[in-house]
Amino acid sequence: MKISYNWLKEFLPETIGNSKTPAEISQILTSTGLEVESLEKVQAIPGGLEGLVIGYVKDCAQHPNADRLRVTHVDVGTGEDLQIVCGAPNVAAGQKVVVATVGTTVHPLQGEPFKINKSKIRGEVSEGMICAEDEIGLGESHAGIMVLPEDVTVGTLAKDYFNLNDDYLFEIGLTPNRADAASHLGSARDIAAYLRTHIIKPDVSAFAVDNNELTIPVDVESKACIRYSSLTISGVTVQDSPQWLKDRLAVIGVRSINNVVDITNYVLHELGQPLHAFDADAITGNMVVVKTCAEGTPFVTLDGVERKLSADDLMICNNTEPMCIAGVFGGATSGVSDKTTKVFLESAYFNPVSVRKTSKRHGLKTDASFRFERGTDPDITVFALKRAAMLIKEVAGGTITSDISDIYPAKAEPFQVSFSYKNAVRVIGKDIPASEMKAIIESLDIKVEEESAEGLQLSVPAYRVDVTREVDVIEEVLRIYGLNNIEIPTQIRASLNTSVKPEKDTVQRIISELLTANGFNEMLANSLTASAYATDMDSAVKILNPLSSDLDIMRQTLLYSGLEAIAYNQNRKNADLKFYEFGKVYGVKEDKYTEVRQISVFISGNGNAEQWNQKPQAVSFYSLKGIVDELIDRLNLKDYVIEDISDDELAYGLQYNFRGSKQLVKFGAVSAAALKKADVDSEVFYAVFNFDLILQLVQKNTIVYQEVSKFPAVRRDLSMLVDKAVTFNQLKQIAQKTERKLLKDVGVFDVYQGDKLPAGKKSYALSFVIQDEDKTLTDKAIDGIMQKLIYNLGKEAGAEIRK
Length: 803
Description:
Layout (H helix, E strand, L loop, with lengths): L1 E3 H7 L1 H6 L3 H10 L4 E7 L9 E11 L7 E6 L6 E5 L9 E6 L3 E2 L7 E2 L3 E3 L2 E3 L1 E3 L27 H4 L5 E6 L11 H12 L22 E3 L4 E10 L8 H9 L7 H13 L3 E5 L8 E5 L5 E3 L5 E3 L5 E4 L4 E4 L3 E2 L11 E9 L1 H11 L4 H6 L8 H16 L2 E2 L4 E3 L7 E6 H8 L5 H10 L3 E5 L3 E6 L9 H12 L22 H14 L3 E2 L5 E2 L23 E2 L4 H12 L6 E13 L2 E13 L16 H14 L5 E6 L4 E9 L3 E9 L1 H6 L6 E7 H10 L13 E10 L4 H11 L4 E10 L8 E10 L8 H19 L2 E2 L2
Helix pairs in contact: 6-7, 7-10, 11-13, 19-20
């Protein structure tokens, strides 16, 4: 959710406007539970007119070498005039103009920003630029330079003259229970409670009905519509919104449509109350009916898509047909257009469950449905209606041509909660004075009905759908009082830990430290993912009420989480990447759900940065293999078998199977199909470990210290011809089986394939390290071992020893 700092100031003008900076407001919001994920300065126009000043053109002469250029001398208030070459046809002596001085970066309306440098233009020195409005983002005109009024003071900064009102944007990670905070009003309430001050709501006291020339009756036939308020406005002129309205919506990422629709969006984000404006002339029969339609009724929504309605979908209809899916999406023919002159304005409270089911059924997620399905304020509909009507009159003209119709048969009553001071102190863990708790409760718009020494009888407003029990009120007190104000006790009661060693956290720390030391960054991704990434939809854990189509199943693999992170970084010119993640994958088989812990490792791009003494080198399969082997060695895992692997995730790679059956790790190059799904356009290498299996193995693992042998090791090399299908791993296993005690290591230091070898053959050069830890090996013993190796390699792998 996006919240504007300047917009908040309108609710708290004295508190925010005079004393609280955006950073301080960010801290307050986070401490009260509205976590600010980012705080960004938003300039009214790109560049903020930095480096631009108001100048006075002292003289203007024809350029000696160009017919269309003029040479001017401009006073910018520094004491030294600037000579500026200008090509504008309207430049003249005596003008007040906007000047971009040398060193200024100019942000034009079209094209890339550019820096103003001192230069020569057709032989004449130019020390700046006299600007047209499109060249600095202030407008679209390029007919000539901007000429300002004569009373402007020379040297004034352009950003001060044009009174640019920069803003700050809070990106708030709104939790599902805080529907009451899904607006600037809601956020301001928490700030006011924290600061023990009062908010100033928009003034609607001047609202008045002009006449009753266009009354449209409303009939509510469904209990899913709990309250329905409406009025009409006639004589409106639908056009582009004024700049202030466009700017206010643009800051929070809302696209301007027209002045009437923009006002409904404005009020939604201001007060949290969704509104809908209908073209009154499209209401056939001059009657609005709130009801459900027959199963399968076709309805074309605002996006031009025909949808089949369910018999449970609540609809706003006229006498003959549906016009709008209530609380979710408007229709294609009933909305406000540039031909609209009469508006029917709706402000309602719909049953959250009904809206949620309809939104999910049709796959429609809108700002309105987001709020309705979580629960809006049933008591604000008329206030929001008055606010919107007054704003529409301000920006679109017209008159209010009906009384407010307010159908509210069963009033939503406040929640009645008993609150005990003693219980609150016990749960919070600190003896907060009763007067302090009462003050916090009242600052949250919760009414105290009765008071005693033991506690309070409270009436919680209906819009606080998450505060219905005593413990909820205690949580409200705690979040406003401040979690940071609860001291950690000097003594903490604890019991002996009898869990199996090493603990999961210990093993995870060992792995994290190793990967981090090798230049990897840990990532944490959502366990919800898109069904497009599913490896098998039949075994996928599907979300019954998905937030979106991109988060509709539990992930079956960690691969796509990492690929999305890689794509995000690559799109921002950060291509050299090393990531790892501890996560879970999920599945279902025969109605039994599974949850497996895994570790994923990703590398892509270059393994090292470019330096004066080395060139960047791209990572490869062996870069990843080195990390995998290092981690396996660090955990002292043994008894695994190596096999080749290729599947839907990996184009090629290896897997290590513990005792030949359980997959400990698989790794390799990510397949082209998987890369395409995640929009990754470079090679990626990926490893995934079975963390649950690792935890089982390390708990059984014993490490015994062995003294370094006093007797030297001996190395012998063999060069051999083998079939192309024979792998080094096969040769290594034959060697280890041949000499189990004295053979310490087998390595490969050369591989050759070419036309100088027989067809279907390749050459391996292997090294064998032999050592007896009790005595020095004799040549005879070493030769005996080598002969056995030569024999078994020839017998089992068809190896021919090259002389």
